[in-house]
Design brief:
410 residues, mainly alpha, 4-stranded mixed sheet, globular
């Protein structure tokens, strides 16, 4: 009977999560019609405001349909214990435990991919195309899928094998060894993401000599920030939206600008954006974030290790015996309330970090330039200017634009 109670709890959590998410999305939907704050009035003209609201409302309707379909499929899968039946079926053909786990995740991932593919296509070639953002060709769209699949295989299979091996041979300390493997992998990605992963999808070229590079290097000297080069990424091959980011540690750190950003901002505004990114480095946000994520992962894996061998978790999904992969899935759902709380806390910290990085740019007299840059980027990306406060607290890793401007003007 214990597994039946777990089964009921899992179904209840799936339903509760869907209702909660729909409530949040409805709050956000209502906020699309909120009046534009005074400090954001000059971002959109009246015609563009209507188009902006229409864009977000269309996205809301699109995502709602996707979420409802996903919810119904997920509910059916768990209600009819299809994952347990898949596990029982695979066990009749596969004896090796790791191959069983690998086959299980491959099949489930492939089905999820097939379900989501039409939505991804529609989002890119209908909605984004309709509002003038999409620059992706169907060829790029398809090749991106195969590249992502190849990366998932090359990285995911050895990672899964390592974690599974520790689970089988060091059951008591499985969580600790699994954590070490994941942390080593995370460090590797942090150090070499721009050098190994990004080039598979985009071309990165050093910023050429000229006024912009001179201004950037001059600011780096002022801020006592050593960087070998600033890179331009050809983001315009997929979208007209603009952004910039900082990545890496030590000698591998680099600042990357979207090429769309160069066509939108002035030299002073780009320097202000870079000052914000350098602010993250100076305040050690990347290192602190890595440590926080490491501790959160350690805690999660430890809790997982207490339950993963529990046969009732697997039986609740319809299996006849304890299963590594079914244990992970059951735990993931039962852990979701704690995961939500952690996510809210992490987003709160992230928003504080953004304010700190903004203030770093302001310290060098770049407040107005950064405000202008943020306004232009928001206008280019059709950023939502009046998000609901509750939605912000739960889902936003960056503060709303109105709050960032208010902070910069102090």
């Amino acid at each position: 009977m214990i597994h039946f109670y777990i089964y009921i709890i899992i179904i209840a959590f799936i339903i509760a999560d869907f209702i909660f998410e729909q409530w949040l999305e409805r709050l956000q939907y209502k906020s699309y019609d909120y009046p534009i704050p005074d400090n954001l009035q000059n971002i959109y003209d009246s015609e563009t405001i209507q188009k902006h609201r229409q864009y977000h409302k269309e996205y809301y309707l699109f995502e709602t349909k996707q979420e409802v379909l996903t919810f119904l499929i997920t509910l059916a899968v768990f209600a009819f214990q299809l994952l347990g039946k898949l596990d029982n079926f695979l066990r009749s053909y596969i004896e090796n435990e790791f191959l069983l786990t690998l086959s299980f995740f491959v099949i489930v991932s492939f089905i999820a991919f097939i379900i989501n593919l039409p939505f991804s296509y529609y989002e890119t070639f209908v909605i984004e195309q309709k509002y003038g953002f999409n620059t992706t060709t169907k060829k790029i769209f398809i090749t991106d899928i195969f590249k992502t699949l190849a990366i998932s295989i090359v990285i995911g299979v050895p990672l899964l094998w390592s974690i599974f091996s520790f689970y089988k041979h060091t059951t008591e300390y499985f969580w600790l060894f699994a954590w070490l493997v994941i942390m080593i992998f995370s460090l590797f990605i942090t150090f070499f993401y721009s050098k190994l992963i990004v080039p598979l999808f985009n071309k990165q070229t050093p910023l050429p000599e000229g006024e912009l590079k001179t201004a950037i290097l001059e600011f780096c000297r002022k801020a006592n920030f050593t960087v070998k080069n600033v890179y331009i990424i050809d983001a315009s091959k997929r979208s007209k939206k603009a952004n910039a980011y900082f990545t890496g540690f030590g000698k591998n750190k680099r600042i990357v600008l979207f090429d769309t950003l160069l066509n939108t901002l002035s030299t002073e505004e780009i320097v202000a954006v870079l000052a914000h990114e350098i602010g993250h480095y100076k305040h050690k946000h990347i290192i602190k974030g890595f440590i926080l994520n490491s501790l959160q992962m350690l805690f999660t894996l430890y809790i997982l290790s207490l339950f993963i061998n529990n046969v009732y978790l697997s039986m609740a999904l319809g299996s006849k015996q304890a299963s590594f992969h079914l244990g992970i899935i059951s735990f993931g759902i039962l852990y979701s309330p704690i995961s939500l709380i952690i996510s809210i806390l992490f987003n709160y910290v992230s928003r504080k970090n953004e304010f700190q990085a903004d203030k770093f740019a302001a310290k060098y007299g770049l407040s107005n330039q950064l405000i202008n840059a943020l306004k232009k980027i928001s206008a280019l990306n059709y950023s939502h200017l009046t998000p609901h406060p509750t939605y912000v607290k739960i889902n936003y890793s960056h503060p709303p634009l109105r709050e960032r401007i208010y902070n910069l003007m102090q």
